[in-house]
Amino acid sequence: MEQKNNREFPYEGRLLNGFVMLAAVLIPVPVSILVLLLALPEYLYWIPGIVAGVGLIAIGILLCGFFVLQPNQARVMIFFGEYRGTCQKTGFFWVNPFMTKKKVSLRIRNMDIAPIKVNDKVGNPVMIGMVLVWKVRDTYRAVFDIDASDVEGLVVAGDGKSNQAQATGGNAVAKALNAFVGIQSDAALREVTGRYAYDEEEGKKGEITLRSDGHEVNEQLEAKLNERLAMAGIEVVEARLNYLAYAPEIAAVMLRRQQASAIISAREKIVEGAVSMVKMALEQLKEEPEIELDKERQAAMVSNLLVVLCGDEPAQPVVNTGTLYQ
User: CA 109, CA 112: separation in Å to the nearest integer?
Assistant: First the structure.
């Protein structure tokens, strides 16, 4: 889904090589102090001390301008509250030390939403879990449109291990994004899966169900997540159901229902095959001139064949010592 109103733009301010600036920052102060110590008389040795103090303060300020960027990482540049652009160049750089540099990861992230209880279309409680793959697309929205001031109070969907570890790791931006994605994923999962029944209902063939039409459900889930997460500058790479089962309180009843449906389907197939075999046997007997069967004998043979072919247990042969009519 294409995100609209992308407010991110590249940082075009001064960006200097970090190694050159590191040498320019660290070398002048010690050299200046050494020159002053050699040039000044003893009673003026307090001057190098002042120079050293001022130099250390200046070095401390200038060192704040250094930063490193790895592939698929970005820095959102903010100068006294004003957004100046997003830097995505990789390497070691130096910028104005008064520039705030918020780090945002552009790498693909994986989130496992643990099974939650959802009522399907017909009201049956089912347990549904999801795997979500996502990444940041608009760093401006990710930093400025999501409030990271109260991350500790946010509830992350899913289990207390995988998602909680993601929410507590990294900087404040990463924590806020993980919490936001977790909550919105939970809401989208409930909304989309609540539209469909777990399995086909009687008399309603061809409808989309959670169990048999996973591809269509995954597509709708991905579209809904993209719609919800676009406000945070997030793009969903993939979303798919990875767990689907009836809730424990109705699992046993639904299992018996499925077993009954399976038995009925199997019986229908057996009867269909048995009738076909009996029909074939009668047709072959009619082609034999030596064998003539009246209607009553044909009915008896059909009955016996159906019992043998449709029975669960092996047939027990019974030898008739008389005739069919006695």
Answer: 10
Distance between CA atoms of residues 77 and 74, nearest Å: 9
Phi then psi for residue 92, to 5 deg, are -110, 120
Same domain, 98 and 113: no
d(CA 261, CA 141): 51
Tell me which of 246, 271, 298 is where a domain ends.
246
Q: Indicate which CATH number applies to the domain containing 192.
A: 3.30.479.30
Q: Is residue 28 part of a domain?
A: yes
- Looking at the 3D structure of the chain, how many domains does it have? 3
| 124: pLDDT strictly greater than 70 | yes
Q: Is 50 in the same domain as 74?
A: yes
The gap from C-alpha 185 to its chain's centroid, in whole angstroms, comes to 8
Under a CB-based contact definition with an 8 Å cutoff, are residues 184 and 177 in contact?
no
**For residue range 261-308, what is the model confidence (pLDDT) as tens digits?**
777 777 777 777 777 777 777 777 777 766 666 667 667 777 767 676
The domain boundary residue, chosen from 223, 246, 269: 246
Q: 148-153: long-range contacts at Cβ-Cβ below 8 A with a sequence spacing of 24 or more? A: 148/172, 148/173, 148/175, 148/176, 151/175, 151/176, 151/179
Cα angle, residue 318 at apex, residues 314 and 322 outer, rounded to 5°: 160
Q: What is the mean pLDDT of residues 75-92?
A: 94
Q: What is the pLDDT of residue 324?
A: 53
What are φ and ψ of residue 286, in 5° steps?
-65, -25
Domain span at 26:
16-103
Which residues sit opposite 312 in a β-bridge?
none
The Cα–Cα gap between 129 and 62 comes to 49
135-192: pLDDT as tens digits: 999 999 999 988 876 555 444 444 444 444 444 445 788 888 999 999 999 999 998 8
Q: Calculate ∠ Cα 252-257-263, nearest 5°.
A: 125
Classified as helix, coil or strand, 10 is: strand
Q: Is residue 324 part of a domain?
A: no
β-strands 109-119, 82-87 pairing: unpaired
